[in-house]
Amino acid sequence: QKHELVNDFRQFRDSPLLKIWIGPVPFLVLFHTVLNNPVHMDKAYAYKFLHPWLGTGLLTSTGDKWRRRRKLLTPTFHFSILTEFLEVMNEQAEVLVEKLDKEAGKGPFNCFNHITLCALDIICETAMGKKIYAQSNYDSEYVQCVYKMSDIITRRQRMPWFWPDLFYNYFGEGWEHNRSLKVLHSFTSNVIYERAEYIAYIESDSESDQGMRKRRAFLDMLLKTTDEEGNKLTHQDIQEEVDTFMFRGHDTTAAAMNWAIHLLGSHPEVQRKVQQELQEVFGVSDRPINTEDLKKLPYLECVIKESLRLFPSVPFFARSICEDCHINGFKVPKGANAIIMPYSLHRDPRHFPQPEEFRPERFMPENCVGRHPYAFIPFSAGLRNCIGQRFAVMEEKVILASILRYFNVEACQKREDLRPLGELILRPEKGIWIKLEKRKQQH
Ligand code: HEM
């Protein structure tokens, strides 16, 4: 059923409006988006189940709170800080390549977890300034709870009878939910306290710090930032944002990189072209990737975009319609819930002829001329678009480039074997199975 949800809506693409019921709540499925109207930027009912974990951080907040937060947080994704994060990404890519090296030449294996743990290490260090060594220590209770919580929330969203807290706590997974919540919150809360103390120490002792200054993390900026009246964020405000980055900042990129690996592994001609591009930038050197290199990989960027078109990590998202309006001649009342589906929108043959085919060339600048601005929206669009999109593309470039510099990838699944599950994140049902072969010129 889950599989069909994202696939089967395509047949309704030309209907003016489609309504589905999820339990007692009607949702409009919109192929013609409401994203360009800043009035409709509130999040739909289903996001309520994220609140216990994420509070009302950037993803889940609305109205003035969201506006203030977005303004405050936008500078934390500035180019200069992203450049510092490149170091972390390179280091973690190296760990990943070492792990993958052990699988090379040995036949098919599932790379999904390897890549996901790498993305998790990257977000922990960049968001919180904390190394958790997920790639070598999968047993971490925090790591396990991040996954458990995403699963628990998805299950609850699908079972309307568990929406009321009372039923959920008595008959559902309320107990497990609350236990995981405690682990997640106490971990991030401790990290925030530790980091705040560390920053206070550095600031009070400006001479001794130069040599030992740690790398900056998003958290440092959250601890220092002030609004127009000079007010700092509270501990709870900061916790909401850190938890949001942890939730939003790794599963999404991990899924995207996995899909890209599958597509590259099934299209050797595309893979060779990426490797050719890498060869021109790096030659036989195994030096880390710098910001200049990133600009010289336009074809790899096309591959990333085309993979996100076919398999957008966030296959659908929902909004609440904030004002009565008309859509295709139908009156839609204020308060209605609307679902927007990048997965279906991206398969519109008017914008992407033969939409199921993997053709990175579609995203070369000359081929994008005249394309509708909302034909490709993996990061949503308008005011509430993804604040982490540049971070995400940078991470994808570093990891995919690192893998393809060392290995040739061969996919061991056909497209029909993948069975994308469209939950909070679009994942392949049984992972991504590949074979790796070491590339000769590197050794
Ligand atoms: C390939 C990777 C990613 C994809 C496909 C993606 C996609 C999206 C989408 C579709 C939204 C809109 C969701 C909605 O309206 O409900 C969104 C919002 C958001 N994303 Fe991402 N994202 C990615 C990576 C990241 C990363 C790496 C971070 C953080 C480091 C991040 C942080 C956020 C936040 C905080 C929001 C809420 C923004 C707001 O409402 O103002 N995302 N993302």
- What is the CATH superfamily classification? Cytochrome P450
Amount of helix: 40-55%
Proper CATH architecture: Orthogonal Bundle
Beta-strand content estimate:
5-15%
For the sheet with most strands, the description reads: 5 strands, mixed
What's the number of structural domains?
Answer: 1
Bound molecule types: protoporphyrin IX containing FE
* Total strands: 12
Mean pLDDT: 87
Oligomeric status of the shown chains?
single chain
**SSE order:** HEEEHHHEHHHHHHHHHHEEEEHHHEHEEE
Quick one: CATH class?
Answer: Mainly Alpha
What is the topology, as strand order, of the major beta sheet? 1-2-8-5-3
**How widely separated are the two ends?**
47 Å
Query: What's the CATH topology label?
Result: Cytochrome p450
Tell me the radius of gyration. Answer: 22 Å
Pfam family, one: p450
Enzyme class: oxidoreductase
Function: Catalyzes the formation of aromatic C18 estrogens from C19 androgens.
Cofactor: heme
